[in-house]
Write a structure and sequence with these properties.
This protein has 286 residues and is α/β, with parallel strands linked by helices. It has one domain (4-259): 4-Layer Sandwich (Metallo-beta-lactamase, Chain A), CATH 3.60.15. The protein is 25% helix and 22% strand. The chain contains seven helices and 14 strands. The chain has helices spanning 47-58, 79-86, 96-107, 180-191, 218-224, 233-244, 253-260; strands spanning 4-10, 15-21, 27-31, 36-38, 43-45, 62-67, 89-93, 121-123, 128-131, 134-140, 149-153, 156-158, 198-200, 215-217. It has a six-stranded mixed β-sheet with strand order 1-2-3-6-7-8, covered by helices on one side. A six-stranded mixed β-sheet has the order 9-10-11-12-13-14. It has a two-stranded antiparallel sheet with strand order 4-5. Helix 4 crosses helix 6 (233-244).
Length: 286
């Protein structure tokens, strides 16, 4: 049997999570899990990760790795929830240190620490993680954020936000530490993989009339990606920066960072059992 890849689409945030498993051993990894969050009421729930948990139980899979492709700014990670129920190690790229340097002073009041103490493993480019009889190759693919990595397993690569479906394009590079030129190098690295390599994206924002999708081959990405990542660096950087200038901040930016920099852990409760997220304010004082 070949590599098991089961996708879970989270419509509210457009996020795609994956269970990836070695069928011979039953060892599994989960990539980019989601904890549900309704910002108007401040309600946190676990429906998305419960579906993943049920799949692991149903298929008798043992969770070895909970993989984050980067520090997400658009959804809350379900990594800590999964670890508390299935075990496994939470892994993220070592570039998370740079993200922490920027955001920890802002979010210290919600329990974000200066060091990445809430992650079990900081992975580096070229590192290989065991998955039963298979191997997870870590590819550093920064540009969207400092912490971005892709995970290559067998004939599949899980790219997070670096590449979207061809008709959507690539990820923004205007976050702190983001860099369109660095991302262009990362894209060229991914597009140098064999043509038949299956590229699994971390999000889909389908245009009107298309159902959500998350898989395209390297050949399809190279030939048809709307942001032309295989173009020369100057052309790509100009196009990416022009597009980024028109984008608003993600809807869940502040809640997501506070939770995700803690490996998916919510802020600690106060004496009355209440948990709080911080919302830094900008603009002129009244």
């Amino acid at each position: 049997m070949s590599l098991i890849v089961q996708a879970f689409f989270h419509a509210d945030t457009g996020t795609v999570s994956y269970v990836v498993a070695d069928p011979a051993s039953g060892a599994a990894a989960v990539v980019d899990s989601v904890l549900d969050y309704e910002p108007n009421s401040g309600t946190v729930s676990s429906g998305a990760v419960e579906a993943i948990s049920a799949y692991l139980h149903e298929h008798g899979l043992r969770l070895a790795w909970i993989l984050e492709t980067h520090v997400h700014a658009d959804h809350l990670s379900g990594a800590a929830w999964l670890k508390s129920r299935h075990g496994g190690q939470i892994a993220i790229g070592e570039g998370v240190r740079g993200i922490l340097r920027h955001w920890q002073p802002i979010f210290a009041g919600s329990g974000v620490q200066a060091e990445p103490v809430h992650f079990d493993r900081l992975v580096v480019d070229g590192e290989r993680l065991p998955l039963g009889g298979l191997s997870i190759e870590v590819m550093a693919t920064p540009g969207h954020t400092d912490s971005c990595v892709s995970y290559r397993i067998d004939d599949a690569v899980f790219v997070g936000d670096t590449l979207f479906m061809p008709d959507v394009g690539t990820a923004r590079c205007d976050f702190p530490g983001g860099d369109a030129l660095v991302q262009h190098h990362s894209l060229r690295l991914l597009l140098s993989l064999p043509d038949e390599t299956r590229v699994f994206t971390g999000h889909d924002y389908p245009p009107e009339g298309r159902a959500p999708a998350w898989e395209a081959s390297v050949a399809e990405q190279r030939a048809g990606n709307a942001m032309h990542p295989d173009a020369d660096a100057d052309s790509y950087v100009a196009a990416r920066r022009a597009r980024d200038a028109k984008l608003m901040a993600p809807r869940l930016l502040m809640p997501a960072l506070q939770v995700n920099l803690r490996g998916g852990r919510l802020p600690e409760p106060d004496a009355a059992g209440r948990r709080y997220l911080l919302i830094p304010l900008r603009g002129a004082a009244i």
